[in-house]
Amino acid sequence: MIEKTRFIPDGKKQLKELPILHYLDAEYVYYPVTSQRCPDGVTCVRGGQFVKVGEVVGTRKGAFFEQPMHATVSGEVVGYEKHIDNSGKMVDCLIVKNDMKYELHESIKERSDQEIEALTKEDFIQIIKDAGLVGLGGSAFPTYIKLETKDPIDVVIANGVECEPNLIADYSLMMNYPREVIKGLIYAMKASGAKRGVIAIKKKYKEIEERLKFVLQEFTDFDITVATVGNFYPQGWELAMIKNALGIKIPQGELLSKYGVLNFNVSTLQSIYNAVKKDIPVLERLFTISGDGVANKSFRARIGTLVTDLIELAGGYKDVDTPKVMILGGPMMGTNIQQDDVIMTHTTTSLIVFNEKIEKEEPCIHCASCVYSCPVEIQPVQIMNAYKTRDKEMLKTLEVSKCIECGLCSFVCPSKIHLTEYMRLGKRFAAK
Ligand code: SF4
Ligand code: SF4
């Protein structure tokens, strides 16, 4: 038997020291017409039309909500092209040629503190809906829908744990823009009626803890505290984080709001601040390029930027003759992509490029490591076997739907079996 594995190398030390390069003047920007939660979409502009920063250029359509698409530069609409979005799919993208003037759309007007003070819960929700805000930690779930809950909310938790290796966007955000995160949290508290706010970070982020506590001295009218949680993986998973930061155990599958809790990623809270205070949608985000197959750099770039531009600016690929493995997002839960023709969208946090190492999958040695390490206490090896025999009943009995696709079972497996891929396939097959 092998011990339960929860501590994984995070590779963040060097990445955290990288300066943030600003690349905000791409000549062309590309807006995917669809997204991971919105399989349909339409644009409302024509070729040759001039658009301004913050102008609505289309609508993405999900199963039960719509999300406006906004221009992040001013310039001319010049057509459509297909590129890869954050889900790894090739999708239609509207192209705008940047005129480098960054003219703001007339609808955008900064609000004074007095105006914000007078906003009602409904006003906050409408502003957030109009700005098209979604969960920027990767969920892409519409932010206004969470806030519309009728359940009484006691506490809003800001998730700054970012537990996946190689991801440092939230870390950089909290270090560089702590006030915006805190103000966004205050607006989310007002919009939900919560009296309390908690910012959850990793215990080892002492410098962030100090920084947040220092800035919080400016906000003593509000009950906001910093909670530190363990350094293990997947501590950023919301149920684990809430249990350890708030002491509230929420069963899988239940709504957080039923327990008086709302959870937002810290980047989402910054976007709430920008929408409420400056009346702007998400125009930019932090993005990191890492891995041994590419020059490592951190960027601040406009939504709609081609990632190939960023790779080139970073210094390009290393060992160009070696085949690459490319992942959008973190190495544990990210999406494998076959080509780098990717557009940076709201939820694109990172590109990881590894030089490919051929690791041959060996037969299972029944060590049970995957079972002991699974945070939701299901049995990856049994699920894999049930999927191989297409045993739907067994997959349900083994509760494959509980899998959060954290990737730990694949990581710990000494036989290098891609268990997480079997979990994904098994979930899909059992749900048919
Ligand atoms: S990917 Fe799923 S089955 Fe594997 S360890 Fe994570 S939760 Fe468990
Ligand atoms: S699948 Fe891998 S980790 Fe799980 S029991 Fe088999 S060898 Fe061990």
Give keywords:
alpha/beta; 4-stranded antiparallel β-sheet; 432 residues; binds iron/sulfur cluster; 15 helices; 3 domains; 22% strand; 6-stranded mixed β-sheet; Rossmann fold
**Overall geometry:** globular
Bound molecules: iron/sulfur cluster
Radius of gyration: 22 Å
First-last Cα distance: 35 Å
Strands of the biggest beta sheet: in what spatial order?
Answer: 1-14-13-17-15-16
What assembly state would you assign to the polypeptide chains in this entry? single chain
Q: How many separate domains make up the residues?
A: 3
Strand tally, please?
Answer: 17
Uncertain segments of ≥5 residues (pLDDT<50)?
none
| Helix run count | 15
Overall mean pLDDT? 94
Taking the sheet with the most strands, its summary is:
6 strands, mixed
Helix content: 25-40%
Beta content comes to: 15-25%
What class, by secondary structure content? alpha/beta
